[in-house]
Amino acid sequence: MRPPAALTAASCLFLAACGGSDGDATTTAAPDGGETLEALWRAPGDDVAVVPGTATHQVGEVRVSFLVVDTEGEVSMLPTARVWVARALDAKPFLETTAKLERIGVPGGAEADSTHLYVTELPLRRPGTYWLLAEPDGGSKKVQALGQVVVEKDDPVPDVGERAPASETPTLASTRGDASKLTTRVPPDETLLGHSVADSLRAGKPFVVTFSTPKFCASRTCGPVVDVVEETARRFEDDDVRFIHVEVYERNDPARGYNRWMREWGLETEPWTFAVGRNGRIAARFEGAVSVLELEEVVREQLLAGS
After folding, report:
1. CATH of region 5-152, choose from 2.40.37.20, 2.30.130.40, 2.60.40.1930, 2.40.30.200
2. pLDDT exceeds cutoff 90 at 12
3. Would you call 20 exposed, middle or buried from its count of C-beta atoms within 10 A (0-12, 13-18, 19+)?
4. Where does the pLDDT of residue 36 fall: very low under 50, low under 70, confident under 90, or very high at 90 and above?
5. 93: nearest Cα among 145, 144, 36
6. What is the domain partition of the chain in residue ranges?
7. What confidence score (pLDDT) does residue 46 get?
8. Higher confidence at residue 105 or residue 5?
């Protein structure tokens, strides 16, 4: 889907430059060719900014998602993108990897501004601000998208290996079957409203919990996360794993701010999705959009493996 013109303009302002590189610019080279990240960005093609899908990154294996939008407003749908990472714009890249295009919705589900996002994992072991360059592979023209990844030593969001907060999140039972108090999704996602986080922890059940609001999702890249979690739940309906949806705003009203369950989990953005094992510890976390394939892999390999 074509994004609003204001988005492309905002991306240009972020980088203080936008548009196609001229033919005299430095040619693209592999990191070992001695080029700086800026020189790679200014190679012939469209010079744009990435549209980030994640904002919270903690040292370790950092999951980063993003869109690449060319100067005509077209979102890249090529299957993979080359990714370089450097510690400064005028520094040589120290890391080269590949981002994979992931579908962030389900057929027939809610529509997002884009149906797909690029996703990659970067081994960033030190806190700091890193520069990222993404170039979709193939296509009729080159597009180089530049952005930053800010990595913190610690953040308030529960990390992999930490215990999940025992939040008494609301359920159909606690609202006497009134789904309108629990979800803004139409129709209601009742299969995700039967269990609370605290009850699942007490029962020693592995679970996936998503903090998201289908009606009021504020980010262009947040995607129909509840649809994704519901579809993943269908794939594991015969397995001993629970799937939970928690809305993010007090009384489902954005004017009232985030609710207490968001605060208990230290969440300052949405959506967030967590996979929690039988031991009550977080096995994986996803900020922003997540694909069915990503979530299915985590459930199969980390929540159900050996159970």
Report:
1. 2.60.40.1930
2. no
3. middle
4. very high
5. 36
6. 5-152, 179-303
7. 92
8. 105
**What is the band of 106 on the pLDDT scale with cuts at 50, 70, 90?**
low
Residue among 135, 146, 51 at smallest CA distance from 98: 135
Q: Using alpha carbons, select from 198, 193, 168, 169 the residue that is nearest to residue 180.
A: 193
Q: How far apart are CA 180 and CA 197, in angstroms?
A: 19
* CA 187 vs CA 70, 110, 111, 114, 246: distances in Å: 35, 11, 14, 22, 15
pLDDT recorded at residue 48: 94
5-152 and 179-303 in the same fold: no
CA atoms of 68 and 104, how far apart (whole Å): 15
At 103 the three-state DSSP class reads: strand
How much is the pTM?
Answer: 0.78
CATH class, domain 179-303, is alpha beta
The gap from C-alpha 247 to its chain's centroid, in whole angstroms, comes to: 17
* Segment 197-223 mean pLDDT: 87
Query: Phi/psi at 53 (nearest 5 deg)?
Result: -105, -10
Which two tokens mark 239?
């397995």
Average pLDDT, the chain: 86
| Residue 35 half-sphere exposure toward CB, CA atoms < 13 A | 19
Tell me the helix, strand and coil percentages in the chain, rounded to 5.
20, 30, 50
As given in the structure block, the two tokens for residue 151 are 């990595």
SS3 94: coil
